[in-house]
Amino acid sequence: MQHKQINAIFILIFSFSFVVTGQKLVNSPYSRFNLGSLEPAASFRSLGMGGVGVAIRGNSSLYFSNPASYSSLDTNSFVFDIGLDYSMNFISDDVSDFYSDDLNFDHLIMGFPLTKGWGIALGVVPISSGYYKMTESVLKNDPAYDPLVGPYTSDHIGEGGFNNYFLGTGIKITKNLSAGINMTILLGQVTRSYQVNFADFSNTYQNNAIEKLHLSGVNIDYGLQYTKSLKNDYFLNAGISFGLGKNYSSNYERLAYRFTAYNTRDTITYISDDSTKAYIPGTIRLGISFGKKNKFTAGFDFISTKWSESRIPGVFGSVADTRSVHLGAEFIPDKYSNYSLLKRIEYRVGGHIGDNYLIIHGQQIKEYGASFGVGIPMRRTFSRTNFFFDYTKKTGTQGSLFHVENYYTMGISLNLYDFWFVKRKYD
Which listed CATH number (2.30.180.10, 2.40.160.60, 3.40.640.10, 2.60.120.970) goes with 2-419? Predict the structure, then answer.
């Protein structure tokens, strides 16, 4: 037991450094705006079911979309979950096709009970990715070529992103009702640059612009879950979680300058603002789930965020309120089968449809997708390896004005479960 605890702590420390410093390097032009491309913040068990989790409880998994679920952790148990994902983005604008991919650490979460019906969870999950890289070259034969300007190349580059570091607790108030809170620390920075390089480098000014946005702050999310046991091991759960809008500390800088081949440099504009607060709206999540214990679970989530109320210093690009619907199900043929691994595997499927928070060319971007996953149990334990695959499409309603993104994500996570602080009678 002691060796297991030491190994788990080592994995925790080693993995945490990768999660904190990692950045998803998947090229998306939508990352140029606002906070970047929003990332789904959920465990891979949840993502394999379309992202549902507000009304789902489990003694071996952590559903941090609703902190009330932490009250379901077993006494003397310890749950540890770390995920790695591989993403591919295929971009098409009816003229050209582009492709990018990246392998990245996704999340790190852990939880344990304080006593029966009272649990704690903590970890780090992604919020957004600000990575993009776009290059445009205008030559003599191009329609946009201007003889007074000459040939040139423009580069747009973005990097960074934002994460949520959370600490939460959930407690049973009555036999059927649980409540919980998550304290979340938002932290991160995006850096965006724009550079124009003229072919006549010796006789022209080259133009650069760099902007940085850093955000930090603490917020609180609240959650409730009601569970009703039915006959023959069937159950019905309902859940709600929400967070209020929050003003976050921000530091925004923008520098635009020009320079020559002879080290002459002129500052065109410089802005530095660390006094304006960034306002990020709260999110409300509603969910319901139905199933049979150790056999199947089906869930439905509705999520809404009033992004139109957000205020981000230096942000270019409009935003709109978002609403999304998530559906998913999990089926286990025979959880306690002694002879067939295939019967013990957890099979998952789901789908999602909703709005992206960005408005481009006066239209709100739409998203929809489907997912599936499996949970493969480890021998003689409640631990499992989770796999999921998700396909998401992002586009506008007027295809000629938008590029289309076909986003494929595959993930693997280790969901480790063990009983701690229990003295064994025999070694």
Answer: 2.40.160.60
Single-letter amino acid, residue 127 = I
Query: Could you give the CA distance from residue 248 to residue 175 in angstroms, rounded to a whole number?
Result: 38
Query: What are the φ/ψ torsions at residue 146 (nearest 5 degrees)?
Result: -120, 120
* 175 Cβ neighbours under 8 A, 6+ residues apart: none
**Burial state string for 202-233 with b = 16 or more CB within 10 A and e = fewer than 16:** eebebbbbebbbbbebebebbbbbbbeeeeee
DSSP 269-331: EEEEESSSPEEE--EEEEEEEEEETTTEEEEEEEEEE-GGG-B-TT--SEE--EEEEEEEEEE
Q: How far is CA 264 from CA 53, 101, 152, in A?
A: 57, 39, 20
Chunked in runs of 10, what are the mean pLDDT values of the chain (427 residues)? 45 48 75 89 91 91 92 86 92 81 89 91 92 82 73 86 94 96 95 84 79 95 96 95 94 87 78 90 96 95 94 81 96 89 94 92 90 90 91 76 86 84 52
- Which H helix or E strand runs over 51? none
How far, in Å, CA of 170 to CA of 113, rounded? 9
Give me 34's structure tokens: 């606002």
**How many residues appear in the chain?**
427
Segments making up each domain of the chain, as ranges:
2-419
- Angstrom distance (rounded) from CA 75 to CA 234: 23
Q: What counts of helices (H) and strands (E) characterise the chain?
A: 3, 20
List Cβ neighbours of 228 (8 Å cut-off, separation of 6 or more): 176, 235, 236, 237
